[in-house]
Recover the amino acids of this structure.
């Protein structure tokens, strides 16, 4: 829970000496009057739930409607919200400003003790759905600055204001702006670049990723500029931004750099838009992976799920559907289990005109609560009851790492439109799906893992004993990471590498036939890769292990052979100084994901990864997932059953803790070492 949302006993927790003296004098006076007891009451701020929703404000809405929406939020214990602050609905044609529409919303929020996060939304063509991502010109930049001055200055004193979202969903899907203003910015940026000593051994560098590197810089520059403009008028402003389309746009986001100007980091999580590479039954798991990525990006900052799909798609969304009340419950508890400080639905009420009109809402067209809003309210009540903000996620020291360069190379390599499912592993998105498969498989053992960019991992520790890094499908491993990775293994870490990870460097230079730089820690180099369209399996521990598309063999120099077919070495293990590596250059993650048979991969990961967590499943549970949270000696376990039938799972638990069910939307139960859930049920157990 953020400090702005906590009920404090006194303002800023400061006691003024004069006030204390007066208080003592009053106490003595009352005692002298013979008052038997003295009760001092301090007016506390109202509790604000971690759960809230977007209230969509637009011209034509009545005062009664606006009041109703804030009343509904308060009644459902979801008294925090987000409002898009449309310039087009404030600035008159003559250049003057009329804030009355949004003043009504802020007054209603004050009336019902709802906190508002305002999304800055300068004038955009047709009030477009996502807004523009970069300024078009120097004059446009000044227009944006004028808008920020007007809006921040006007609303900064409102008791309802919590903070500002700098812009809605930065990220272009890889498109690099090519207008005059962007090109000027690029020219200035290029002047700051320092030449690198590494040049892919002097080979011709045919592929140029400078545009992608510039986009990474440009997104950060613009967000920083907005933050600076807000701070001019509200120096103590709380600043936030929500990333989106995480599994494809992630190469545009430099989260560590954003920490310098943000108060918290967020994400939009709309399965119908953002999780289309997965099946609907995987949406909860995809949200978990999304949360893990944002949690890592936030570092020491809080993270939010800033937008979560709350209602039906009619014509918008790549995969139109309406979330069930069970899915709403699952998504909320998944976010909480990963440590999200706030979760805001998109939307409470539907917009009336334009894209998404009449869609996405938690209320029906008569402004009555749907079963989805009721379900969210039940979760909010439980979170307040158990004081969930004091519980922190328990995450294993297993780090699934990705590189931005992998996504750049993957997209650059798409010479043809390979929509044929037989080649899924080499299509755009294959790398992130491979990494996701590792996350999913561990979660189906009850193990929540880290999902991080290489830049977010702590490479400066003296010892990595007990920690595991997984490289799954990360086809580009830039040279700047070679020595840190070597140091990780040297100092006790475990590296698991699969698929075509480290096939290229940052310049799309093939590494294995030109002197593989990690041969010492892996005990060999890649000998050959055979493309086997669709799926196949290899024998691992006397059982079939599903794989997809690529079957790699190893030129083994020092490693211990783990899997061999004839003369082909398919997997090795190698000790390097105090650490160890395990290398299986076939696409195992995609094999498990596509086949739906994760048990063999699970067996491999449990044997090789170093997972020390207080709770996990006794056996692999396909379709069931668990998150664990901790507060001192107390634990929360959050279990979700995506199977089509009820199930009972055996749990591995710490000694001396006893379970009590604090939430079960379908009557689930727990014993000392088992949990029973109905299909699609979410079960939350408190252990103490």
């Amino acid at each position: 829970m953020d400090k702005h949302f906590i009920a404090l006993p006194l303002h800023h927790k400061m006691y003024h000496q004069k006030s204390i003296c007066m208080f003592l004098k009053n106490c003595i006076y009352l005692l002298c009057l013979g008052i038997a007891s003295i009760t001092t009451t301090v007016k506390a701020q109202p509790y604000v739930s971690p759960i809230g929703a977007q209230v969509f404000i637009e011209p034509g809405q009545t005062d009664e409607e606006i009041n109703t929406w804030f009343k509904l939020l308060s009644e459902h214990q979801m008294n925090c919200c987000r409002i898009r602050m449309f310039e087009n609905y404030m600035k008159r044609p003559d250049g003057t400003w009329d804030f009355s529409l949004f003043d009504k919303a802020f007054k209603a929020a004050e009336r019902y003790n709802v906190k508002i996060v305002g999304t800055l939304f300068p004038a955009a063509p047709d009030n477009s759905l996502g807004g523009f991502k970069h300024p078009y010109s120097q004059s446009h930049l000044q227009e944006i600055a004028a808008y920020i001055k007007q809006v921040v200055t006007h609303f900064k004193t409102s008791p309802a204001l919590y903070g500002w979202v700098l812009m809605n969903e930065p990220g272009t899907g890889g498109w690099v702006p090519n207008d005059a203003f962007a090109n000027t910015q690029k020219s200035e940026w290029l002047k700051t670049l320092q030449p690198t000593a590494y040049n892919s051994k002097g080979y011709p560098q045919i592929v140029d990723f400078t545009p992608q590197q510039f986009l990474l810089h440009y997104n950060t520059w613009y967000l920083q500029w907005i933050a600076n403009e807000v701070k001019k008028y509200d120096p103590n402003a709380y600043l936030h931004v929500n990333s989106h389309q995480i599994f494809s746009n992630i190469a545009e986001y430099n989260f560590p750099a954003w920490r310098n100007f943000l108060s918290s980091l967020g994400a939009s999580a709309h399965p119908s838009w953002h999780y289309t590479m997965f099946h609907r039954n995987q949406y909860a798991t995809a949200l978990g992976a999304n949360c893990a990525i944002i949690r890592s990006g936030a570092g020491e900052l809080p993270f939010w799920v800033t937008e979560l799909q709350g209602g039906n798609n009619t014509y918008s969304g790549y995969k139109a559907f309406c979330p069930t009340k069970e899915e709403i419950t699952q998504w909320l508890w998944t976010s909480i289990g990963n440590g999200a400080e706030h979760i805001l639905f998109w939307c409470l009420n539907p917009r009336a005109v334009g894209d998404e009109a009449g869609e996405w809402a938690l209320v029906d067209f008569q402004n009555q609560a749907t079963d989805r809003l009721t379900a969210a309210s039940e979760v909010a009540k439980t979170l307040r009851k158990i004081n969930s903000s004091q519980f922190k996620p328990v995450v294993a020291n297993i780090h699934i790492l990705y590189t931005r360069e992998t996504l750049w190379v993957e997209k650059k390599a798409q010479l043809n439109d390979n929509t044929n499912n037989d080649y899924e592993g080499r299509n755009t998105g294959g790398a992130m799906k491979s990494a996701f498969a590792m996350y999913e498989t561990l979660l189906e053992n009850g193990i929540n893992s880290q999902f991080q960019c290489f830049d977010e991992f702590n490479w400066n520790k003296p010892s990595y004993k007990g920690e595991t890094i997984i490289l799954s499908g990360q086809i580009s491993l830039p040279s700047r990471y070679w020595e840190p990775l070597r140091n990780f293994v040297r100092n006790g870490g475990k590296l698991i590498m699969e698929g075509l990870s480290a096939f290229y460097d940052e310049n799309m230079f093939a590494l294995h036939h030109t002197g593989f730089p990690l041969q010492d820690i892996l005990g060999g180099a890649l000998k050959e890769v055979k493309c086997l369209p669709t799926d196949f399996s290899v024998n691992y521990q006397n059982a079939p292990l599903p794989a997809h598309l690529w079957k790699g063999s190893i030129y083994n120099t020092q490693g211990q052979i783990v899997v061999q077919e004839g003369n082909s070495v398919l997997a090795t293990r190698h000790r390097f100084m105090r650490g160890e590596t395990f290398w299986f250059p076939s696409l195992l993650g995609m094999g498990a994901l596509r086949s739906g048979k994760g048990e063999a991969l699970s067996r491999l990961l449990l044997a090789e990864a170093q997972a020390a967590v207080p709770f996990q499943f006794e056996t692999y549970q396909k379709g069931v997932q668990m998150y664990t949270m901790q507060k001192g000696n107390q634990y929360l376990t959050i279990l979700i059953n995506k199977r089509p039938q009820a199930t009972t799972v055996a749990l591995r638990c710490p000694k001396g803790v006893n379970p009590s069910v604090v939430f079960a939307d379908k009557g689930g139960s727990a014993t000392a070492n088992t949990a029973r859930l109905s299909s699609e049920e979410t079960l939350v157990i408190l252990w103490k």
Q: What stands out?
A: The CA atoms of residues 291 and 338 lie 6 Å apart. The chain is about 30% helix and 25% strand.
